[in-house]
Every structure is written in C-alpha cells, then in structure tokens.
Amino acid sequence: MVIKRLSDEDRRRIDGIIEAHGRHMSQRDLAHRAGCSLGYVNKRIRQLVPDRVPVAEFDGTGRDRSASRIERLVELRDALFGLMRQTGGRDLARLSREYRATLADIAGIAGSRTQHLVP
Predict the structure, then answer these.
(1) Is the pTM of the predicted complex or chain greater than 0.70?
(2) For residue 3, what pLDDT is reported?
(3) CA-CA-CA-CA torsion sign (24, 26, 29, 30)
(4) Phi and psi of 6, rounded to 5°?
(5) pLDDT per position in the chain (119 positions), as tens?
(6) Fewer Cβ close by (within 10 Å): the C or N end of the chain?
(7) DSSP string, the chain
(8) Cβ atoms of 30 and 41 closer than 8 Å
(9) What pLDDT does 111 receive?
(10) Could you give the CA distance from residue 71 to residue 56 in angstroms, rounded to a whole number?
(11) What's the CA gap between 41 and 28, in Å, rounded?
(12) How far apart are the two ends of the chain, measured CA to CA in Å?
C-alpha cells in the first residue's frame, strides 16, 4: 500500500466529509468514502470533536448521552417491546432474546427495584 502525504486541500475535503456524514456513518465508512485510513479518520475526529462522543458510539437520535445506564436500558427495552409487537417469525425470536437479555441487565443493575422491568 502506498502512503501519500495529504495536502491541505485533501485535509479540508476529509474534514468536510467527517462533518457532513459523521453523525450517521461509521468511522470505517467515512474512511472508505474519504479515501484515507481509518486511523487518520479517528485522529481527525478526536481533533475536531474532542468533547463529544466518538462517531461510532453516536446513536443517531440526538439525545443526551449522559443518561444513566439504566435509563438507556429502559429505552432499549421499550423499543424492543414495540418492535416485538410489530414483527413475527425469526425476527421475533431474535428480538425476544435481546429483550430478555436487556431485562436481565436491568434487573442486575436495579436489584430489588423492579419498577423498570415491566414496560
């Protein structure tokens, strides 16, 4: 693989791609689209957005990531429950496994506080 030096124009183009698509694309997809390495994309993201969540962890909803773990699990539980009501077959089995695992995580965190288990 040939490594080339990036010009200022290349850097500006890559920064533009990161800023335009960073909220809905993974770092790997950004690197592919920009035609540069994954390491360079990660480095630029850290430089451009040092105080926010890395792109790969962004959930796309725009909600505050400072919510507690149990609040995020409760949101996941509610979303899975809604999807389970709408689907069937293999998807239902897969969603059920994920739903049960989420309930187990909530129960493990909440301990005796079981108000979070039932939607």
Answers:
(1) no
(2) 67
(3) positive
(4) -85, 135
(5) 566 788 889 888 988 888 888 777 888 888 898 888 888 888 888 887 655 444 444 455 555 454 577 788 888 888 888 888 888 777 888 888 888 988 888 888 776 555 555 55
(6) N
(7) ----PPPHHHHHHHHHHHHHHTTTS-HHHHHHHHTS-HHHHHHHHHHH-TTS--GGG--SS---TTS-HHHHHHHHHHHHHHHHHH--HHHHHHHHHHHHHHHHHHHHHHTT-GGGT--
(8) yes
(9) 67
(10) 20
(11) 8
(12) 53
Residues in the chain: 119
For helices 89-110 and 69-86, angle between their N-to-C axes, nearest 10 degrees:
160
State both tokens at 55. 């792109």
- CA 56, CA 62: separation in Å to the nearest integer? 14
Lookup: tokens for 64? 């505050």
What pLDDT sits at residue 38? Answer: 87
How many beta carbons lie within 10 A of that of residue 21, not counting itself? 15
Tokens found for residue 81: 């429950």
Tokens linked to 102: 């989420």
